[in-house]
Design brief:
This protein has 129 residues and is of the alpha+beta class. 43% of the residues lie in helices and 26% in strands. The protein is built from 5 helices and 5 strands. β2 and β3 form a beta hairpin.
Length: 129
């Protein structure tokens, strides 16, 4: 019995290493199967379209690549504010101990994610449009 268990355990460990080698790069997206994970993955993989006025507001709030990375990994999708027809609207909240709360709303079209609204800590930006 011990020999069978040992043989099973060796095969199981070899199988785990084989899966890690084959799917190693995809491991962070492979396990994002929840609705929130799927929305964030979709936002990460599609092209972002940002108007000039919203780009100005993002720059005014110092929203840089680090915030985009944080959004894709740890953003909270507010499904109670989501709309699905004709195209989905998703509101993603960013908040933790080190950053002020920010809210981004995206219109998710076929291969585009259009930023339609942003609210952040700095509401006194001089962005005319």
């Amino acid at each position: 019995m011990k020999k069978r268990f040992r043989l099973f355990l060796v095969g199981f460990i070899i199988g785990i290493f084989a899966v890690i080698l084959i799917y190693g790069e995809k491991s962070n997206t492979m396990f994002k199967w929840t609705p929130e994970g799927r929305v964030l993955k979709r936002l990460r993989l599609t092209e972002k379209v940002i108007s000039d006025s919203l780009q100005c507001i993002l720059e005014c709030n110092h929203f840089d690549q680090n915030y985009w990375d944080y959004l894709y990994e740890d953003g909270n999708v507010n499904f109670s504010r989501a709309r699905t027809k004709p195209y989905p609207y998703y509101t993603v909240l960013l908040e933790n101990d080190t950053i002020s709360p920010m809210k981004l709303t995206f219109l998710a079209q076929d291969s585009l994610s259009i930023l339609v609204d942003f609210s952040g800590p700095n509401s006194s930006c001089n962005c005319a449009n």
